[in-house]
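User: G3E family GTPase, Nocardiopsis composta:
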Amino acid sequence: MPSDSAKIPVTVLTGFLGSGKTTLVNRILTADHEHRIAVIENEFGDIPIDDALVLSGDEEIIEMSNGCCLCCTARTDLIDILRRLLERQDRFDRILIETSGMADPNPVAQTFFVDEEVAANFELDGIVTMVDALHAEAHLEEGSGDGVGSHVADQIAFADRIVLNKTDLVGPAQADAVEERIRGLNATADIIRSRYADVDVADVLGIGSFSGASRSAEDPDRMDGGAHLHDPTLDSVALDLGGDVDRAAVESWVAALLRDRGEDVYRIKGLLSVGGDPRRFVLQGVHSMFEITPGTPWGGDRRSTRVVLIGRNLDREELDRGLRSCTAGAGVPVPR
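Assistant: Predicted structure for G3E family GTPase:
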């Protein structure tokens, strides 16, 4: 099995229709950088990337003119595509998966937890969501359930990084209002403002959210999540535990929680101070799948355990009791 450093990092790009995903993909495909990137269009229907960049056919891999990128248009199962990429003699530096505008990013993200061969060779780097600054608030008002508002809210809730695009079409006050609304749905994701999806490639690729290399892992205060306006359709619960935790106890608690409530817990993110270990541990979960991985040493920072859960129908008091039962020396909680 390859070491974590040898695994190919994968970025999932999501966002509602018209948010600018295709424009961002085209910028990445034609940018002057040193990465070899396979771009997977994980949708059915018309290929949204410019015709000049994609050959016709159900599945093609094309060397780009800048010699750095390759584009893979996927019309079959994602796992099959990833396995075929592994069979190629030339290796890729990164994979970028663009989902369709109405897609739930959860099944794509879970692929990197549930398939052993995929998990052994690829590492989920982060979920990037594009948000249309001009239309986001209207979309979010379009109802819950299966409505547009639910799709947009879910895509924001899953994100590790958010690109607030089309800021040239709104004034500063409206951009601030949209960002505040986003913060109500996701208190921990970085937000980058852009025009025409003109962002630095390094801001969307290689963010290290699932490996402990993100800025949240470097700065525990970014995990507070408690002082933001919350959208009524989603809950964001931030838990802060001053002392150390027992890693096995946390694993047991999270496993039981996601087993019973996985459909309601969209994302779980955390920084753990594990008793007897100098490193930060990073907790990342998507619905019923989660992992805990070691990160950088705490150094001179105040050690603390902070966990943020984003989802629906979350009981803060119950969750707080569950985390506190994981305090080092408290024993492993018994799953109910």
